[in-house]
Write a structure and sequence with these properties.
Low-confidence stretches: 1-6
Distance between the termini: 36 Å
Mean pLDDT: 88
Helix content: 25-40%
CATH class: Alpha Beta
Radius of gyration: 16 Å
Strand content: 25-35%
């Protein structure tokens, strides 16, 4: 039942030469009800990879559990970490396998990571398609607003710090215009040293800057 499903989101992924920034808001909604003001929509998969989700919270939580279990089995069998492309491909298989059933996964993902081949940013839709992005991507109900900010401000020579500010600005714009987006911003940065979550106080300071 649509109104019983926690959903609604804006997520952003930005690729720079120094690293990748993932950002998302904190609101989960059920119809016109704000069901959760502190929803976690960006998850660390392991030390080098992370993902965002937009859509059904239940679907995303279940798929994340499946994914982490499969990755642990991969390490046991192979003795090494799977690549970022391997993670995105595995997730796309999960999505595609249910895409034509009576209960498809109502979810979009952004997967990002760093491995031996460099930095990678992938966009996955509910049908299981997987597209690697060389610049930026956005998913969720507020993505049209976020895309407006990204297309107007993205530059190929963005520094990592500038990328973080742009990601925060894109989510902040969506919060102002999309009812299903709100209640704060989470940011994860992935660079050659791995994936790490940005302190919420630093994010709050960025949001309070007049330009945002």
């Amino acid at each position: 039942m649509e109104n019983d499903t926690k959903k609604g989101t804006t997520t952003v992924g930005i690729k720079t030469k120094e690293g990748i920034i993932l950002a998302a808001d904190k609101r989960a909604s059920m119809g016109y009800l704000i069901a959760d003001k502190d929803a976690e929509k960006i998850h660390l998969i392991d030390d080098n990879n992370a993902m965002t989700f937009a859509g059904s919270v239940a679907d995303s939580q279940m798929l994340l559990r499946y994914l982490k279990t499969e990755l642990r089995l991969y390490i046991i069998k192979r003795g090494n970490q799977i690549s970022c492309n391997g993670i995105a491909t595995l997730l796309s298989h999960f999505l595609f396998s249910n895409a034509h059933s009576f209960s498809p996964f109502l979810i979009q993902f952004i997967v990002a990571g760093v491995d031996k081949t460099g930095l990678h940013l992938y966009d996955l839709d509910m049908g299981g398609s997987k597209m690697e992005k060389s610049t930026y991507t956005s998913t969720g109900s507020g993505s049209p607003v976020a895309y407006g900010v990204l297309e107007d401000n993205y530059k190929e020579d963005l520094t990592l710090a500038e990328g973080i500010k742009l990601a925060v600005r894109a989510i902040s714009a969506a919060i102002k215009r999309d009812m299903a987006t709100g209640n704060g911003i989470d940011v994860i940065v992935i660079d050659k040293n791995g994936a790490k979550r940005i302190d919420k106080k630093k994010i709050a300071e960025m949001v309070n800057i007049n330009e945002f």
